[in-house]
Amino acid sequence: MGKLTVRALRAVLVVVFAGTVFVQAGMVWTLVSGNDPEDGSLPLTALRLVTILGMVSVQVALVCVWRLVTMVRRGTVFSHSAFRYVDGVIGAIVAAALVWFAITGINAPGQRDDPGVTVIMGGVGVAILGVALIVLVLRMLLAQAVARDVEAAQMQAELDQVI
After folding, report:
1. HSE (CB half, 13 Å, CA atoms) of 124?
2. How far apart, in whole angstroms, are the C-alpha atoms of residue 98 and residue 1?
3. What is the Cα–Cα distance from 101 to 122, expressed in whole angstroms?
4. What is the pTM of this model?
5. How confident is the model over 21-48, as pLDDT tens digits?
6. DSSP secondary structure string, 64-121?
7. Could you tell me if 92 and 64 are in contact, meaning their C-beta atoms sit under 8 angstroms apart?
8. Using CA atoms, how far apart are residues 39 and 25, in angstroms rounded to an integer?
9. Nearest alpha-carbon partner for 16 in 52, 59, 54, 51
10. Which of 79, 61, 85 is nearest to 143 (CA)?
11. CA dihedral of residues 60, 65, 66, 71 (deg, nearest 10)
12. Alpha-carbon distances, residue 84 vs 61, 63, 89, 133 (angstroms)
């Protein structure tokens, strides 16, 4: 991975992380200050709480990706320590899907006249879970690469003993 690519990715990660913190701060401020303009059409307090949780899941994924990028730069990504960060990304994506399903459930009563919106939102939640499955497959590929790397190191050690 080139230095420019790593710097660009890290810049994006920092901007997204800052954005999520900004959104969380705004939601917490609105909840704490009592200036929640609840007009009765949607339970805004519940939506704000779910949004705060959703931002936490995004932040967990961002930190895990940052750590994985660091491991790539150091050349240590093909090790067992990388699995905890990949597992963190998978967990964060699943949590984001659950948050999305909660938002869909909160929004559903207001969509009685047009239930298609709820169906589409449910489909988006399933798609988010699909992304988690894709990352799980990539984790399996990482596991195979780590196993091959360990096997190659053992073969090299045996070859060094023979020579």
Report:
1. 14
2. 33
3. 7
4. 0.84
5. 999 998 888 888 876 666 655 667 788 8
6. HHHHHHHHHHHT--SSTTHHHHHHHHHHHHHHHHHHHHHHHHHHGGGGSS-THHHHHH
7. yes
8. 22
9. 59
10. 79
11. 130
12. 12, 12, 9, 16
Q: Are 62 and 16 in contact (CB under 8 A)?
A: yes
Which has the closest alpha carbon to 87: 107, 106, 105, 61?
Answer: 61
Q: In whole numbers, what is the pLDDT of the chain averaged over residues?
A: 89
d(CA 83, CA 140): 10
Asked if 57 and 96 count as a contact pair (C-beta separation under 8 A), the reply is yes
C-alpha 17/C-alpha 105 separation (Å) is: 27
Dist. CA 32–CA 75, nearest whole Å: 45
Structural contact between residues 13 and 67, judged by C-beta atoms closer than 8 angstroms: no
Q: Which residue type does 147 have?
A: A
In whole angstroms, give the CA distance from residue 142 to residue 150. Answer: 12
How far is the C-alpha of 157 from the C-alpha of 142, rounded, in Å?
22
Spatial separation of the C-alpha atoms in residues 134 and 117, rounded to whole Å: 26
